[in-house]
Amino acid sequence: MDENTGLSAGGGGSSAGLFTKYLNNRGIFKNREVLRHSYRPHILPHRRPQIDSIAAILAPAIRNETPSNILIYGKTGTGKTASVKYVGAELENACREMGKACNVIHLNCELIDTQYRVLAQIANELEDLESKSSDKPRSSIPMTGWPTDQVYSELKSMVETIGGVNVIVLDEIDKLVKKSGDETLYNLTRFNSELKNAKISMIGISNDLRFTNFLDPRVLSSLSEEELVFPPYNAPQLRDILQQRADVAFADNILDEGVIPLCAALAAQEHGDARRALDLLRISGELAEREDGARVSEKHVKMAQQKIETDSLIVCVSSLPTQSKAVLYSMLILSELNKQVFTTGEVAQVYRDVAQALELDILTHRRITDLISELTMLGVINSRVVSRGRYGRTKEMWFGTGVAGIKRTLAKDERFDENRLKQIDITRFRTLFR
Q1: Are 203 and 100 in the same domain?
Q2: 82 assigned binding-site residue
């Protein structure tokens, strides 16, 4: 018997054990996977113009001609990746039916963000496709260990041997450029000048319209032969997307009438992010399921919104640099002194004591202001600039939700040791900011 749980460690009793109470759930979901980002529907509502544009640009591949390179921009959750994958699958099917060679290779540059790994991954994807179609033994390029020139040469030889049109999709291309510069893109854009029997076309997908500032003009002109911008979804469009998924995902008559409109409205406020809308709807259903509810209501949507905000906030705070955490901790001290709103100057005063306690270099007032701006941009705090008349302008800050989660997250950082933090004289600040 486990002393802490009171449960038998060796078995016996129901085989379901801990999960018995979940076996008789009311059946909120028919297929919850439909509400995940990875699911690709057969129809993409409100993206037909963008899909048609991508298809028109890639159409020369059907004639074994080189399509133009494309740069696709748009905020997160606007259907960029789903649209490109949909068109890519249709292109491969069309070429197959016509007896033309065409491969679409999709890479996520957030996970593969160096030149070596990009080239190696393209080669390995092509080898996978070839080994499936011709039963050839696979001789993969290692993800590390070779000189980059050797990988480049091997990939070029492989592409030439395979022939046809090869479309390389670099999703989150901005991550690759910011991490390792534009050399990878330069090498890929000059592939066609070195090939005789094959063609390379590239599609870059980015959430950041400014990443092209990091590109050499020659690379930019070659890469952005065509540009497409995906606009955010509005609330009615998000309702259509959610309704399409909900019809498949949920049991019949399980959603209250206001659930989908509320999810759509909340996501529309977040820059029209369909992923956010889908997460809200799925988590609302899961919360109803966990409490063994008979229906999913607007109450569950509001609970889901709070959960998503708290979870994303915790991930964001845990990944902050130590100096940013010190500034944030200074704000927590001010909030504990019942200051609902605080200024940059007040944060800077507390920060100096916090930095000393944590044995950090003390930043300048300008740098502290920069870190505060970054925390605002990340959504960790709220801020506004107010005019003080002849005394000039100042920034006021305050916490929204999730203060308890921020405290717990900072407490897990070993730099924020309790013994160190005891050195901070809270009483002095209580007098100072009375």
Answers
A1: yes
A2: yes
